[in-house]
């Protein structure tokens, strides 16, 4: 492991595997999750969801529900409409129904809400709400949706005459077409990245407490972005922003699922406002799976133009995304398909052109970036699957093909064909190190021998480059809000500190790692720093935690504010040591006069003096705030090698080895980084092997519970072998790049490439995810194997 | 109907609806919120508690079925001597991230090492295969349970 520490363990700065401070409460059952919050007079809400995918609502009979003992009110779209809240804006500039007024557009859509004194009564009431549905045909694929004569799903939307949600393209079409026309070889791949669901084990929920006397709205909410949500609540509900306090408590996993604002939040808040009591809504698992933010659902055709030697000349992509009934992707405003244009991957070629269309269907909306920085999971999958296809078609070893095309270390900063400027990297070293660890040459020899015996062994490679940490204000905003982030640091007279963040942990360990950044920059021991986050009344503004942006943006803000504090402390130290500030140097834990290490004061001495003994003209106190506008994204990367054994009789495949090398720049806490990689690899394995949300022809969601929507248990999950290289980001204050999503982004292609590689000699070039045994068996069977 | 459930060594007597789920009785009735709810179908396991020492998913047991029985929740793992070895090991081995599945995972781990003082990797994985985790990828959970088993064995050996 690369040692990047500069502080002793008792300071616990960057590079130390400090044990997590969050653990103390969580291992004793003292976490404070949303459903643990109980307020005096709190009521409970249950949602009535549509059982059908597409139907006109002819009436809603609430009489029987209202008569249930304990039920206080039934809220319908009509009531919400009277308050101007039947519809709400989405994060992608569309509108979404809060409670359906005209028709339902997907199974699981919110139709009514029952408010009762306890959750059982609310559920009883919800059962008895009688909705008169007039059935309409469901449109369940984007291909059907965009076909001539398809029924209009968004008939309420002014100016909408078809089911097209958006179009987007980027790159140089003419130059790309010319490169393809001149190419020796063209390879193509058509594949579907299926709809998946983040499904954190804690579902979404809210406790809305609107005080009708003071106008104060305290909203406890499973939110990955509490500040942005406060602003959106102010804009949607018309509440004054200073009177809205969003508190995001301990979050039981997010993975993008807790980025959007869902109808349940809005209805519970409205109900609390109207009734004058706190209202709790905790989503059921089925509600979570069938209605909240899914990920992916992209139909992709990618092509590479190559020379006979395998040098890529250009890339062309045509895509169709299934948006569901409302276009509510969480992504930067400027980019309609997120950051998909990172699909040129780790390779040096001059031209690319990408076209994308999105279609409305009768499915749940909310294309969130599921453990992904806005569609880069799809992008990374496409290029890495294309590399496998090209290797198989051209007869070049897939590792060799990558090595021939890599951006070289000396080319950084490197501008891609689609305009990203990659910050740093050494791809050949990373891939070679991963291949060596896997024993690549021996594996290829074993594969050849196995094939001779009729056994199927596959070796899959993926070398991904992510674009994370959105982002620079000149380019990145969500709903107009620039994607900056913040940190506020207060050092108290005894030298103990409080750090307040605009970002919000959902398990990543911010309370530990962000304290380590301050420890590194100031010398205050990490254990003396309390990290506060998630409460908008008590933290500076930020856009939240998703898209691996906490460390690249919030972590940078933390380093910068800590540097401001350290600099003021240095001036105070100069005063205490009766020296000039420019003669003061900082060690890991103290300030000393240059050339006289014994003439020293500690950061704690300086902190005490900040409140007791200051140089003339200096403002008292030792606190500051930084709003960080990153100059660029960061570009973590990795090389993954997967070895699988495929049973030719059943199509069942098993992961024999999974070697994962990640380069996320400087690692703040190696233990936590490795934990993030383990989790990400597991989700990548999940998507490649079992995890998908499907629908029948009537739009019924198959995958509405954990018996039908399969997520891996410990029994199926492979063991992982982790490796690292450390290439710091040159523009990030501490050289860190972000790691939370790398493994989910990079690993699906490695798993699928491994299975395809096992069958490549039979002529198999693609199996869509999830690579279920029956799909593998069919691929073998149709190849005549 | 009136029931008495011993939770973490204390008898809780209450008049409950027959349909009340044990998990709701624990969380709302006894106010012990370390036991979580993650699905409606006995699938995710975050509601797991020990009933007379055996792991049970408390969303699929009625409170009335627990009448006269002993329930251990995460709040009952720690003793006067300090943290249970499994609690310490989960923190030491980074066996938790968001912490939502953690109470259940630790209880299953504690029950396993009661029966099997030195479980193999596969034995741990099989034991926790009724409990989902979305954050950790399980590797450090397995490590934590094995390390807790070793710690428990060594402290039993000492005594």
Q: Could you characterize the architecture of this molecule?
A:
Chain A is of the alpha+beta class and 785 residues long. Chain A has 3 domains: 23-31 and 485-628, Aldehyde oxidase/xanthine dehydrogenase, molybdopterin binding domain (Aldehyde Oxidoreductase, domain 4), CATH 3.30.365.10; 34-136 and 203-251 and 258-291, Aldehyde oxidase/xanthine dehydrogenase, a/b hammerhead (Aldehyde Oxidoreductase, domain 3, Alpha-Beta Complex), CATH 3.90.1170; 300-468 and 633-782, 2-Layer Sandwich (Aldehyde Oxidoreductase, domain 4). Chain A has a 7-stranded mixed beta sheet, sandwiched between helices. In chain A, strand 26 (584-586) and strand 27 form a beta hairpin. The model of chain A has no long low-confidence stretch (mean pLDDT 97). The radius of gyration of chain B is 15 Å and the shape is globular. Chain B is an alpha+beta fold and 159 residues long. The longest helix of chain B has 20 residues, at 139-158. Chain B has 2 domains: 2-76, Ubiquitin-like (UB roll) (Roll); 85-158, [2Fe-2S]-binding domain (DNA polymerase, domain 1). Chain B has a 5-stranded mixed beta sheet, sandwiched between helices. Classes of the chains: A alpha+beta (785), B alpha+beta (159). At the A-B interface, helix 1 and helix 17 of A face helix 2, helix 3, helix 4 and helix 5 of B.
